[in-house]
Automatic annotation (TrEMBL):
Its job: Hydrolase that can remove 'Lys-48'-linked conjugated ubiquitin from proteins.
The gene coding this protein: Mindy4b_0
Organism of derivation: Scopus umbretta (Hammerkop)
EC number of this enzyme: 3.4.19.12
Family as reported in the entry's similarity comment: Belongs to the MINDY deubiquitinase family. FAM188 subfamily.
Protein name per the record: Ubiquitin carboxyl-terminal hydrolase MINDY
Chain residue ranges for the region called Disordered: 64-84
Deubiquitinating enzyme MINDY-3/4 conserved domain residues: 5-103
InterPro entries: MINDY-3/4_CD, MINY3/4
Known catalytic reactions: Thiol-dependent hydrolysis of ester, thioester, amide, peptide and isopeptide bonds formed by the C-terminal Gly of ubiquitin (a 76-residue protein attached to proteins as an intracellular targeting signal)
The keyword Hydrolase is annotated on this UniProt entry: yes
Keywords of this entry: Hydrolase, Protease, Thiol protease, Ubl conjugation pathway
A single MF term (Gene Ontology): K48-linked deubiquitinase activity
GO BP annotations, alphabetical order: protein K48-linked deubiquitination; proteolysis
Length: 108
């Protein structure tokens, strides 16, 4: 029998397979699970255990950002518009969200 804590986690956690690598995307605010208003601006952490990742990436997600705030001078297919796979995975749940890496170099 599965423990109730595994069926209903107390904190938001997602196991991810991003670009062929497995990782954990998680939050430390339990209200993110129960209060949709907490989905405005919140923090998530990503860890994949790979040798090149020396610390857990701290991400700030803003689901109410405005698409017109992005730099329009670049074409969507240009290298400057390339987005990390972790960001694209986050956008499968929160479409259009902006992701700030808070000083960590984004990894692809």
């Amino acid at each position: 029998q599965v423990c109730p804590g595994l069926r209903t986690p107390r904190l938001p956690v997602w196991l991810c397979s991003v670009a062929g690598r497995h990782g954990v995307l998680f939050g430390t605010d339990s209200q993110l699970l129960s209060d949709w208003k907490m989905e405005r601006v919140f923090h998530l952490y990503f860890y994949n255990g790979q040798q090149e990742q020396t610390k857990t990436a701290h991400l700030t997600i803003d689901t109410h950002s405005h698409h017109w705030e992005e730099d329009r001078s670049e074409e969507p297919s240009s290298p400057g518009k390339r987005r990390p796979a972790v960001e694209m995975a986050i956008r499968t749940k929160w479409a259009g969200a902006t992701v700030s890496w808070n000083g960590t170099d984004p990894f692809f």
